[in-house]
Amino acid sequence: MPPSPGESVEERVSKLERRQEEAIEEAPEQPLPPSHGMSLEQRVSSLEQWQEAMDQQFKQQQQQLEEKDNQIMRRAAEFDNFRRRTEDDKDKLKFRQTCAVLREILPIVDTFERARKALSPEKLETLHAVDVHQDYQGIYKQLVSALKRLNVSSMKVEGQLFDPALHEAVMREPSHEYEEDVVTEELQRGYHLDGEVLRHAMVKVSMGPGPDLGG
């Protein structure tokens, strides 16, 4: 450390000794250099060497602290990633469990659907039968409403291009109404849960040739 202009040796020694005392509090393990039997110049040189050693030690400690800070930041990031993965796994598990329960319920909905189509009011002969049909329809509507509250939605498939991610082709037949690979009929309704496929729709698919546009 170069002396300040006009600074005497005694002042410089005094300043270095004050810095010694301050540094001792931060790094008490570094012993003070001996000063007995030394001239002022020797004491200055010894104190400067001691100060350089203290500065080097401080830099090393600062580097160690920075490394520890970096380690803490890495551990925090790893923990945050682990927490997010755990939450994602919980959400996926919950979704799979919900799907499993709903897949058990959907066949009941299918039965109601078939009965609704077979037992139209005009086919019922007695007033009692009409009442039974209305009660039956009421139960069906409650079931559909419950599915909607669970974010279950039915697919609209007829007239759509066949998509194996959504549809399961049970039959293929020629059609003059629909182009090739277009769904012509829904055989069993498909459903989404929160935008994900809960059950594929079973469909009939056109083999073409489609409408005769030249006619």
Write a structural description.
The chain has 215 residues and is of the alpha+beta class. The chain folds into three domains: 99 residues; 43 residues; 57 residues, Head domain of nucleotide exchange factor GrpE (Nucleotide Exchange Factor Grpe, Chain A, domain 2). The protein contains three helices and six strands. The strands form two sheets. Strands 1-4-5 form a three-stranded antiparallel β-sheet. Helix 1 runs parallel beside helix 2 and helix 2 packs antiparallel against helix 3. The longest helix has 79 residues. It is rod-shaped, with a radius of gyration of 42 Å.
Question: Secondary-structure blueprint of this entry?
Answer:
Blueprint: H1 9-26, H2 40-118, H3 127-149, E1 152-154, E2 167-175, E3 183-188, E4 191-193, E5 196-199, E6 201-209
Parallel strand pairs: 2-6
Antiparallel strand pairs: 1-4, 3-6, 4-5
Family: Belongs to the GrpE family.
GO biological process, one term: protein folding
Region (Disordered): 1-46
